[in-house]
Amino acid sequence: MEVPVAISMIQQYPQVADSKKCPVTSRTLIFLVIFIPHINQRVVWYITFTVSFQVENDKMIFQFLTMKTKFLLTIAFFGFLFTCFGQQNLSWERWNGLIGEWVGEGSGIPGQGGGGFSFKFDLNKKILIRKSHSEYLANKDKSANIHEDLMIVYPDSTGTPCQAIYFDNENHVIHYNITCSVKSIQFTSDKKANAPVFRLTYFSIDDSTVNTKFEMSHDGDKFMTYIEGKSKKKK
User: Fold this and answer.
1) Which of 23, 62, 130, 175 is the most buried (most CB within 10 A)?
2) pLDDT averaged over every residue in the chain
3) What is the reported pTM?
4) Domain that holds residue 101
5) Are 165 and 191 members of one domain?
6) Number of compact structural domains in the chain
């Protein structure tokens, strides 16, 4: 008679039979009923009910803490996002003089060239895109060719537009660091082993004229002018 009683209690409170959830297991109940036959059955029922209540109470506390933890993590995550993106108060003031389309002619080594470039904002003024098209005349060393490139100026984590990445139709990819002064904006590539360092400088002559100079260096200190020329802003 005692064993069915213990089994009935275990079936009614299955969580009691799980030793991971409850310190009083089914074996304990069977021991109480079978080997201590004079124990008051109400005592056994009381123990079972108490343990069951404690398990349910712990489960509710755990669920509450889990919800609270998720809520706090969500608040922290969105706070992190607002902090990161809030820092990017972009300032393009020093770039205003370059915005627009430019045409010009230049001369240098290895030959004379002509073409133009443009600076235009994109992605709601989050980036600045420069496109360039140049035509180089033939000389004794090279045949005539057309050069096209695209460069994206973008901000760092502080919101300062001081980095750029360059692509062209000759499969070059160059990462530039940018420095600005009152009259000039200069792009300088990273130093890499066994690779030249490039420097591109825009110098403002007046509101409608800019001088463009592209230089190369083998050590990053001594630069040689490759192309230089003046450009006029289109009306």
Assistant:
1) 130
2) 77
3) 0.60
4) 93-233
5) yes
6) 2
Domain final residue, candidates 55, 86, 117 = 86
50 and 74 within one domain: yes
Tokens for 83, please give them.
């902090």
CA 144 – CA 153 distance, rounded (Å): 30
Distance CA 101, CA 114 (A): 14
Tens of pLDDT, residue by residue over 201-214, are 999 999 999 999 99
Q: At what angle do helices 26-34 and 2-12 cross, to 10 degrees?
A: 150
Residues pairing with 13 in the sheet? none
The rounded distance, in Å, linking the Cα atoms of 58 and 117 is 69
At which of 67, 86, 105 does a domain end? 86
Same-domain status, 51 and 124 = no
Tokens encoding 137: 């005349």
Average pLDDT over residues 17-28: 50
Q: Please list the residues that pair with 146 across neighbouring strands.
A: 135
Contact 165, 152 (CB under 8 A): yes
One domain for residues 80 and 97: no
End-to-end CA gap in the chain? 104
Neighbours of 16 (CB within 10 A): 24
Centre a 10 Å sphere on the Cβ of residue 161 and count the other Cβ atoms it contains.
Answer: 20
The pLDDT tens digits for 81-135 are: 555 554 456 789 999 999 999 998 655 454 566 789 999 999 999 999 999 998 8
Q: Is the pLDDT of residue 149 over 90?
A: yes
Angle at which helices 41-86 and 26-34 pack, to 10 degrees?
170
- Of 99, 94, 105, the closest CA to residue 211 belongs to 105
- What does the chain come to in residues? 235
